Amino acid sequence: ERGDYEEAKLQIDSIKILYPKAFEARKAGQALMLDVETKAQQKTLAYLDSTFQAKTKEFNAIKDKFTIEKNMHRSYLRFQVNEQGIMSMTSIYCGAGNIHHNKVKVIAPDGSFAETPSSKDSYETTDMNEKIEKADYKQGEDGNVIEFLHLNKDKNIRVEYMGDRTYKTTMSPTDRLAAANVYELAQILSAMEQIKKEQEEANLKIGFINKKKERKAQEEITD
Hints:
This protein is of the alpha+beta class. Helix content is 50%, strand content 22%. It has helices at 5-18, 23-62, 145-151, 173-222; strands at 76-81, 87-95, 103-107, 113-115, 121-127, 130-138, 158-162, 166-170.
């Protein structure tokens, strides 16, 4: 009645320890335990539904900030996120000659920095005599560069493209804001994805409990 389901489980479990021969009480306890488990999962689902709705509001509030960017004629860091909230970064280099870069280093004014490992996905092309290079880095395989940029979003960040030669530039305030906004969106989408998984788990548990109840009811009819 109080909704204190963990305490209820402990009390029911204690019956078989304290009163091992109280078979009817233990049997009744097992039946009650299934009801407790069901109520606990329903409570979890109600919480998850509320949390998901809150995250959906956050998502709707910021989603209109994002557009497809087609500006390819400059060197900059581009940030993307998929529907599962997995964020990635692309280092785009445009110049008169190739530098064959596959890593980037970002440096804060205090000298602290983060550096990607070599990209697993990079390519080069030429457009009207302009050399264009791209290298992709997924969050978690980015040498903590994405997190570093988020933590230093209000600071002037220098970027070094590292390859056969090093190209140096500075992130524009617009690019820093874009990185921060995509990071925020990624956090929301990731949280929503996690909530969906937990909702699915809770529903599976309820389904399992209901099947258990049906089996017990059938056993009682048989007895």
